Amino acid sequence: MTVLRRLARPMLAAPLVTGGLRTLRRPEAAAEAAGPVVRAVGKRIPALAGDPLQLVRVTGAVQATAGLLLATGRAPRLAALTLAATLVPTSLATHAFWTVEDPEERARQRAHFLTDLSALGGLLIAAADTHGKPSLAYRSRHALDHRHPVRAVRRPVEAAAARTAHHAKAVTASLTGSN
């Protein structure tokens, strides 16, 4: 792991781990804030309707666990994606600045929301970071080549043959004076 990743992953994960642990210890305040969001989502997606206190506890546990995985570099892409998925509803529930009337509190909630938004961007970058290795899409496209060595050899040979034929045609044309 490069030095940048060794430093950046724990820094990105730290607020999510501490927030998840804080929510696990004292879920009541977060459940109160999450209540309206849980009810609104529950109306549209009945499977997600439930006890806000229980959902907040689960979210806290997921954030603490995924944050630790990201910080230690274990399954970092999956951990970052999981954290990103939990951060969106959490931010919408706890930092809904557009619903606050007091200008000072609205500014404070907007700042927290934008901080969460920047963390979301960092998590999405971390989720896409392949650590210099080919992505899953690349590996799946080239999986056939590894299972069929003949195909893996045939492609470069065909390309070399095409280049040779092109050069031979150009040399023949120049010797005969035709285009």
C-alpha-based Rg, rounded: 27 Å
Number of helices: 8
Instruction: Give the number of DSSP strands.
Output: 0
Biggest sheet, in brief? none
Helix content: over 70%
Q: What proportion strand?
A: under 5%
Structural class: mainly alpha
Regions with little confidence, pLDDT below 50 for 5+ residues: none
Distance between the termini: 55 Å
Mean pLDDT across every amino acid position: 84
- Form type: elongated
H/E element sequence = HHHHHHHH
How would you characterize the overall build of this protein?
The protein has 179 residues and is an all-alpha fold. 82% of the residues lie in helices and 0% in strands. The protein has eight helices and no strands. The chain is elongated, with a radius of gyration of 27 Å.
Q: Would you spell out the secondary-structure blueprint of this structure?
A:
Layout: H1 3-25, H2 27-44, H3 52-72, H4 76-94, H5 103-128, H6 136-141, H7 143-147, H8 149-176
Helix pairs in contact: 1-2, 1-3, 2-3, 2-4, 3-4, 4-5
Keywords:
mainly alpha, 179 residues
Question: Briefly, what is this?
Answer:
The protein has 179 residues and is mainly α. The protein contains eight helices and no strands.
